[in-house]
Amino acid sequence: MGLKAENVFKPGAYPKYTYVSRNYEDTGISYELRLKQALRTAGCLTSLIGPSKMGKTILCEKVIGFENIVEVSGADFNGEMDFWAVVAAKVGLPYAGEITTEREAAEEYSTERDSRNEKFVLSKDKVIQYYKENDKVLVIDDFHYASQEMQMKMAQQLKDAIRRELKVVVVSLPHRSDDAIRQNADLSGRLSLINIEAWKEEDLKEIALKGFKQLNMTITETVAEKLAVECLTSPQLMQYICLSICILLEDKNEETVCAEILETAYKFTTVNFNYYDVVNVMAKGPNTRGKRRNLYRTKSGKELDLYGLIVESFAKNPPEMELDFENIYNRITQLIEEEVKVPDKQSVKNHLNNLQLILKEKEEIYRAIEWKDGKVYILDPLFLFYLRWGRTHE
Ligand SMILES: Nc1ncnc2c1ncn2[C@@H]1O[C@H](COP(=O)(O)OP(=O)(O)O)[C@@H](O)[C@H]1O
Ligand SMILES: [Mg+2]
Fold first, then answer.
1. Which of 25, 45, 144, 331 is the most exposed place for a label (fewest CB within 10 A)?
2. Ligand 1: does its nearest atom lie under 6 Å from the Cβ of 124?
3. Is 207 in the pocket of ligand 1 (CB under 6 A)?
4. pLDDT (tens digit, 0 to 9) for every residue of the chain, 394 residues total?
């Protein structure tokens, strides 16, 4: 029995058959080796930071292994949660109520008689001991999901725990100025820092080549390169698109990934994503309170205001995750019908400012783009992919 496509291409889980190893910051060593090194540096906490869906969790699972990894989420630590209660529960240890009497505990472990404190210390020690004896590594994933207050409390607990050589990896998103780990003076000198970067096309290509080979399907380098461009730095998107291709080809009883199937596969892939509301909010812009906006006729005969044009400009070829202002402005003027008067630059800038303000106020999913220092950064590759393939086009 051959492998099934869904076991080879896994957009939402550990990709056993399509795992690709990358180079760490052009050092010539792999991310895997870097993480191994960090984990073997006793008394240090590993801080793993990188954009969403760039393979942080998968890297931990690969290096630590499913036998030894203990994954908790920042979201598990909200409200009045006791840090050690969560850490203990994850490995099935009873944290509270383990000690029969507080007196007993105090006698066994210490001469101090502050029994309340004693009980706490004892339990925490046992948890750490269990982790060490069983080669467990605690991975606190999506640390940023924990409340600010909780993050500070956790950092405090971790400082003590790593000194006792508990192995801990804290995984988080970049650019959090409020970073309770990396900005924490108490932890300085006790951190192994690992930054996960966006994926390069050559590594993304490898996912496709590897997977289709496993499935005994053929794909040329050129087609794989095209896919890599369209994935916009996202290994997850590559996994999604390849799976879509398999499903489409199976339906036709074909085994060659030809260039002709790609567009259909892209569109087919976008049905997984729901950015309908995000696009709407962006294209509508702020409430005009009844005032009418300037409309521009596009080459394809649509009437769009400047917000609509800005959104369309992102979707144009080539797909880019970072667009400077001139680039955006050129894209906009190219969308507009020749004889129509083009908007002036200041006006486009004002509209981008407004857009930034609207998105900042909304939920996380709306923060798909950021307009900062004269550039638009597309923060979410899946969003740009949706813009390009998920709608009818200009
Ligand atoms: N090294 C890799 N090789 C192949 N695919 C990967 C790799 N890392 C991540 N992926 C793909 O990307 C998806 C998201 O990765 P994940 O580790 O969950 O991202 P993060 O934790 O950074 O948000 C995975 O489910 C997998 O499909
Ligand atoms: Mg993750």
1. 25
2. no
3. yes
4. 689 999 999 999 999 999 999 999 888 999 999 999 999 999 999 999 999 899 999 999 999 999 999 999 999 987 777 899 899 999 988 876 444 444 544 444 444 444 554 455 567 889 999 999 999 999 999 998 888 889 999 999 999 999 999 999 999 988 766 688 988 888 989 999 999 999 999 999 999 999 999 999 999 999 999 999 999 999 999 999 999 999 999 999 999 999 999 999 999 999 989 999 999 999 999 988 878 889 999 998 999 999 999 999 999 999 999 999 999 999 999 999 988 789 999 999 999 999 999 998 998 889 899 999 999 999 999 999 999 999 765 5
Contact in structure between 198 and 233 (CB atoms under 8 Å) = yes
**Cβ(57) to ligand 1 under 6 A?**
yes
Q: Which atom of ligand 1 is nearest to the CA of 51?
A: 22
Alpha carbon nearest to ligand 1 atom 12, residue: 236
Dihedral angle computed from the Cα positions of residues 181, 186, 190 and 193, in that order, rounded to the nearest 10 degrees? 30
How distant, in Å, are the alpha carbons of 73, 136, 315, 368 from that of 67?
A: 18, 8, 43, 36
pTM score > 0.85 for this model? yes
Q: Is the CB of 58 under 6 A from ligand 1?
A: yes
| Angle subtended at Cα 53 by Cα 55 and Cα 177, rounded to the nearest 5 degrees | 100
Give the atom of ligand 1 at the shortest distance from the alpha carbon of 20: 3
Centre of ligand 1 from the C-alpha of residue 394, in Å:
32
Residue type, 39: L
Helix, strand, or coil (residue 112): coil
Long-range contacts of 314-318 (CB under 8 A, 24+ apart): 314/369, 314/376, 314/378, 314/384, 314/387, 315/384, 315/387, 315/388, 315/393, 315/394, 316/394, 318/229
Domains observed in the chain: 5-11+200-270 (1.10.8.60), 31-195 (3.40.50.300), 276-389 (no CATH)
Ligand 1 binding pocket includes 381 (Cβ within 6 Å): no
Give long-range contacts, CB 8 A cutoff, 24+ apart: 11-14. 11/236, 11/237, 11/239, 11/240, 11/243, 11/272, 12/236, 14/58, 14/61, 14/62
Pocket of ligand 1 contains residue 167 by CB under 6 Å: no
